[in-house]
Amino acid sequence: MARSDGRNDDQLRDISITRGFQVWPAGSVLVEFGRTRILCAASVTEGVPRWRKGSGLGWVTAEYAMLPSATNTRGDRESVKGRIGGRTHEISRLIGRSLRACIDLAALGENTIVIDCDVIQADGGTRTAAITGGYVALADAVTWLGAAGRLADPQPLSCAVAAISVGVVDGRVRLDLPYEEDVRAEVDMNVVCTDAGTIIEVQGTGEGATFTRSTLDAMLDLALAGCAEINEKQAAVLAEPYPGELPKPKSVRS
Amino acid sequence: MARSDGRNDDQLRDISITRGFQVWPAGSVLVEFGRTRILCAASVTEGVPRWRKGSGLGWVTAEYAMLPSATNTRGDRESVKGRIGGRTHEISRLIGRSLRACIDLAALGENTIVIDCDVIQADGGTRTAAITGGYVALADAVTWLGAAGRLADPQPLSCAVAAISVGVVDGRVRLDLPYEEDVRAEVDMNVVCTDAGTIIEVQGTGEGATFTRSTLDAMLDLALAGCAEINEKQAAVLAEPYPGELPKPKSVRS
Amino acid sequence: MARSDGRNDDQLRDISITRGFQVWPAGSVLVEFGRTRILCAASVTEGVPRWRKGSGLGWVTAEYAMLPSATNTRGDRESVKGRIGGRTHEISRLIGRSLRACIDLAALGENTIVIDCDVIQADGGTRTAAITGGYVALADAVTWLGAAGRLADPQPLSCAVAAISVGVVDGRVRLDLPYEEDVRAEVDMNVVCTDAGTIIEVQGTGEGATFTRSTLDAMLDLALAGCAEINEKQAAVLAEPYPGELPKPKSVRS
Amino acid sequence: MARSDGRNDDQLRDISITRGFQVWPAGSVLVEFGRTRILCAASVTEGVPRWRKGSGLGWVTAEYAMLPSATNTRGDRESVKGRIGGRTHEISRLIGRSLRACIDLAALGENTIVIDCDVIQADGGTRTAAITGGYVALADAVTWLGAAGRLADPQPLSCAVAAISVGVVDGRVRLDLPYEEDVRAEVDMNVVCTDAGTIIEVQGTGEGATFTRSTLDAMLDLALAGCAEINEKQAAVLAEPYPGELPKPKSVRS
Amino acid sequence: MARSDGRNDDQLRDISITRGFQVWPAGSVLVEFGRTRILCAASVTEGVPRWRKGSGLGWVTAEYAMLPSATNTRGDRESVKGRIGGRTHEISRLIGRSLRACIDLAALGENTIVIDCDVIQADGGTRTAAITGGYVALADAVTWLGAAGRLADPQPLSCAVAAISVGVVDGRVRLDLPYEEDVRAEVDMNVVCTDAGTIIEVQGTGEGATFTRSTLDAMLDLALAGCAEINEKQAAVLAEPYPGELPKPKSVRS
Amino acid sequence: MARSDGRNDDQLRDISITRGFQVWPAGSVLVEFGRTRILCAASVTEGVPRWRKGSGLGWVTAEYAMLPSATNTRGDRESVKGRIGGRTHEISRLIGRSLRACIDLAALGENTIVIDCDVIQADGGTRTAAITGGYVALADAVTWLGAAGRLADPQPLSCAVAAISVGVVDGRVRLDLPYEEDVRAEVDMNVVCTDAGTIIEVQGTGEGATFTRSTLDAMLDLALAGCAEINEKQAAVLAEPYPGELPKPKSVRS
Q1: pTM of the prediction?
Q2: CB atoms within 10 A of CB E190
């Protein structure tokens, strides 16, 4: 049984990572996994939240949200509903936790970086794409802080972070599920990895089904290989010079 | 005293209107006035709000919001704050009111169109740009409804709607203020017009200053001329065929 | 076509301004435009909001609200709904902005004046009546601050502020619309002026209709004349001594 | 030790009850106990809340609130805070419960009467004044319903309701405490009675002190006598014809 | 007419008071009145709320809540509804006020004690049981503070606090109503007393009925006798050594 | 390096499961893992949420919450804060999803079962203990529905659900972490399993550290063995007759 977009079971969708998408934030990345499109912006603020003050440690956090027009059927705004839903909370926490795994907060110094991941268009795998793009935006923000002489230590990033979804669809273990596969997946798993091949987070769920240990192993194999491939793309994109002039955001702020 | 971007006092910024920016909504427009960039999406739902049911009339409404990363300094999310601020409310109401002025709601039939205006990047004039782009998205949504045979009457749009800001800066009456001029303007006015040269809305405010009737007249002159120019751009863009296949969104939905 | 209350098109309703309506606030005015009745109270607090501290500048802000029993059909309380509606926000912001146009905040010193405009009975034109009455309450609060020796500078008020509604009803341009005319007006405009004849704010809206530049001009003519008349009434009322003893509120507070 | 306003311990303040204070509600009463001034409006709606539908029973409820300018020091609006405080809830519930004690809800038919008690000026005893004025507004609303032929039964009111505060101040049992006595009272009690001399509600609290059974008895004696006096005033006021034309509100609504 | 559980009209249900129910709080009491079961925990925090700082006075407050599963029909969580209901507010305030009547806040020193009363199972009389159990938890917390050398003065408790419900059911005055009697009571009263026989709070309400002064007297007789009996049980329980090791919570905290 | 409570790395804490803890809910279980104590109540309602009506399917959902006094340091109530935190949302969703994996919602018929998991005392592993106890409460509620003849099909439960935490502490892979180990764990994982040995959910997180595939494998080994042991305890407890009379809750409800 073939995938509706013709991919092999272990094949990623086309991935595109565009840096410098906005002028104001220190890092701003448009990340695309097929039709899934997310704007990941890394905003830098001097100082840290109250509960952290005087610790010498910086802080990295993330906020995930969907534009109402991002989905097949228009979604209501959480600002209009007056409360953030459980799913949004859960994903924001996952992104923040994942990105903090690769950064030395003492080296960051008492700076706060907020990674805003706003889904422009959703077609499955938004949380893993947000982590993938969020890492690149974070890397650019760290570079910007370094250029501004505001880091406590020259290189706070200890590894690169990538993430991918994997699942069981039509009885087959498949990588990088689009929405159409995601809604009918029996098992759904998200894996966050580093470029050292280690794991930051694993979240696997049977959807109206349970799964065996060997299925879990097969999903992990696919996910780890997919993450390695994404790490390569991130490295290639970050090897390029910053599009648009890096000093511009700095002068805007001051 | 010249403008910082070299424009004449009566000159608009570069305006760009990109249709079909997203795949799911019936109309999706990225509108740009210089560095101001707004995504205007027109989502169609069958039926109308409860208080309208059985009236035979359709409904058009708008919601305006800013991405946290859209501004010079990161803004807090209204969903996180748990309430929508006064400015957001005010602008959403203005956009909805302005766009309803050009549509015959009986001809629309019992359909609802929500125009989501999400500011990707802010550099002054976001509310007028949102109205300008929102009209184009609305026009595409109406065309889409017509193609789907869901209109009560073939042509519900009676006019085109454009809007522009004008103000007094450095003692001079100027058109289309960027953020840098907006913050130090003595008078700030937004004008919403139709392509028939009539006015839908005028909102003029002295910012720590008051203004004379003759200054008001000079501002109106500039704004009406600016709107006429924008109406031409809208017409030119809408004369093009829909980028990407028009029937696609329809089949996605069903 | 005559007006239902027999007035000429350019005629104001009976206006009454009662000072000293409450004992606690430094200024307290009951303003009446026909059956529209609003209680405008100016409360003084020492100090300014956090974001203003140490600036040497004072602050003036306004809050508008309707009693549930003020309208034809009982309205739900915004405190019960748990959120303030868009219309309330919009009007509160308009009143505050309008009153700040006439006051030198440096001369006010680091004091805060809140103008509470609570609608006791609504019959059209509540926002313009609130501005008109709010100015008188503000003037009394400033006098009270002066008498208490708490002003940085003897006369912070640079002009008087009045406001009036104007609109197109039954095809005729009319001044000071009661509710019955307001609901069927084709165009609705609010104008805020100073006693120097200059304009602070203009807000004109086509309600399911658009309007020409010449209609706009005719509406402005009527509104400016109406405001001049209201300014005279304000001046006459403020020329009277404070009803009730001015020193009383001071001693209550200390 | 004399009372600061010269009254005897068992003496009420001057009480004034003004009917027909607003034009829209079916009953509208301005009640004054000394400087305490409350607007009690009784609004009638056809039908009952969902959980009552089809029961044949009507519903009476109350909402209490304070204008920000009603107190010595300006209070924040509960609509701005986004939640109703415990004290407000408690008093609203007390007023509703007290007024329901005197009405036969079957005779009322499936109509809802909301009693809005908005404190214009507070000087102690607002909750008991609200009950006292609320009863008169309720009686007018019931008369209005009767005149409109909308009652299931001609006379739903079975008794009249009055309320008064009593307390121990300076070691003496005193009736009808103003704010100045209320804040330093050792014991504070509110009593709600009928014109048949029976009790609807008793709420007595030691404020940083406890009290004996005999003090409780002395307070009850004073309160019951005070209520009887208030009941007489209510009866006298209600014996007058409705000020302003009774039929007007009816025609306004239809 | 006999009571459904066979008790005499003046008889309490079986009362059980279990101390040391939880390991973390300084006082933790499970109180049972028949099937009514409430967990009363007294948590100690160093310091006082902002508005009390530097006063040298401590603070005691209470929060009452029901588990969703505590009642016959499952109740919605107030955290899910996003607001605390009027009844909850009212009871929390009553408990806090009652317990503050017996404690010298200067002797407590700048410490805060929060009494959390969480209803595990409800069968009538939860507010009076919460006060009864809350007192015992408070006493244990005060002992704990004394052992930790954190009291400003050795014995801040000046009396013991107990509470009981009483009412008129089937035309008879009865003590300690279970839910089954409570819902059909004509009059419902809660009385809070000290072990000195004085009264802290009386709250009596006619439920769709009014009551005479002599009925009130009969209810007070029963309630005062009931409270005296409960005070004895409290004293007996507090005379026992603390179950589980008293020093444990202290070491856990530090 | 030994564990502070003397257990082996692969050893569970003492587990106790008490059924029939409350009288009102159809299932009510107090589950204890060492000092962690959670009340899991399964409440049955006829009918399903609106979006499910007419589907013939039942619904199972869960709500998790902590008593303020359950933790070392008192936690603020989410009802007081007015919003549910991200962690609470996340855990509630996990419990609901886990329990739905073992039930045939068609067999359940149009009934709703809400599993309330209220943490009485927290000492690590609350979410996994809640799933473990929640399953037993769910099983009792299903039995109760069967006895009441309200199931569409006699046996809707297809498997038993248990959960356990596992982590890396002091460089060692350990089972069932108490709070003291949890806070300093390098890796933290929760595993939900069925009594068929299959997996429902896996959530593993590096806390300021990443982990290798082989560590993941070792954690899974321990967790699966732990779950099997817990499944046995559940089966043993459910083999006992219901403590207290099963028919009682039924008659209470009707």
Answers
A1: 0.89
A2: 23
